[in-house]
Design a protein that fits this description.
This is Peptidase M24. With 428 residues, the protein is α+β, with helices and mostly antiparallel strands. It contains 13 helices and 17 strands. Strands 4-3-2-1-5-6 form a six-stranded mixed β-sheet, with helices on both faces. Strands 7, 8, 9 and 10 form a four-stranded antiparallel β-sheet that branches. Strands 13-16-17 form a three-stranded antiparallel β-sheet, with helices on one face.
Length: 428
Amino acid sequence: MDRRHFLQTSLLATPSALALGQRTEHRAESFSRPLPSAIAALKNRKDEAVPITLAEREARFETARRLMNEEKIDAILLAGGTSLVYFTGMRLGNSERMFCFVIPQKGDAFVVCPAFEKDRMMERMNLLPGGATIRIYTWQEHESPYALVRKGLADGGVDSGTLGIEEKTPFVYANEIAKACGNLHVVDATPVIAGCRMIKSPAELALMKLACSVTLQVYEAVWKSAHPGLTTAQFSELCDAAYRHVGFPGDTSCQTGIYSALPHGSVTPQVIKENDIVLIDDGCMVEGYVSDLSRTFVYGKPTDRMLRVFDVVHQAQAAALAAAKPGVECQAVDAAARKVITDAGFGPDYKTFTHRVGHGIGMDGHEWTYLVRGNTTKLRQGMTFSDEPGIYLKGEFGVRLEDDMAITEHGAEMMTPTSASLTQPFSS
């Protein structure tokens, strides 16, 4: 299971997430005791995380309503997932039983849920924006919930118009809602939802910076604790143990040698060897917000070719950071990094730098918008991205340097110190 799926399932706290948590705990417990001193010395940092407040979620409702007005959307519908968490704080997954939360442009929000879940929903009302006025529509097991969406909208005065559905809503929900609401035009709600979520508040940025700080601290502790002869799986197990010490769920992929040339790794069992490249990736979650960091290093002496590739990737990462300013198109950031790599002889195009330079990040590891050719979206203050150029030489090794950055009033800032070298990856 890859880290992105891990973080999503951990957030939603579904049965599969609970099972994964048990497996992760077992991995950490089974590595060895006592733990290496650098990991054992880590302190729990949960108290540093300040949750998103109800007042901030209320402001998100108002922003969504403003965007709905601009986009001529009369209501948006959220099923389980990170967008539901973003607006309401409710961490719910999706199943064959539909649950949804509907925010109209005007009037009160409403919920459609199974009848046996009503009491559980009532417990949460005072924690939701406008909780006292939220309507709850329930359905019994033999009934269809989809007509209740139409009824809830009609009761709120939306008899016709446009209903936006969050993009990750299961097809069966969206399809049946569209059929039940034949009087409404059903569209993608992304312009509203992404319009809200792409711009991070100071509270969101603080959580993301904490997640990045925690991940870098874990990486450094494990780097100090590991050594040639360990398997990559054992390296990941040490990371599991370190994340347990700092108090946040996280995951780490580790690739070495020729397998580091595969950007998302290999399932092939691997052993870390002296003088070989080691590439680690992924991150953790803090109050629903994630980090995504990569480090590349060598235990021993890198070759001249390794040093050369690292230097080029390091320059490309800096070029992307320098290019990222408010008003600049997303594609220009990718182009800046790609030019460095191509000019250094590792091009053209996607020959060795095989992926975009970055993705939006926040509550999802990958979210709107993307630093990629063809994306003319202009950067705005408060957007957050990964900055992760790489060079992957098939059959040899790969180097990727990844940090997360926030767009500021005048440019962009990294949330973590960048890597200095292949032998000292945690000194800037």
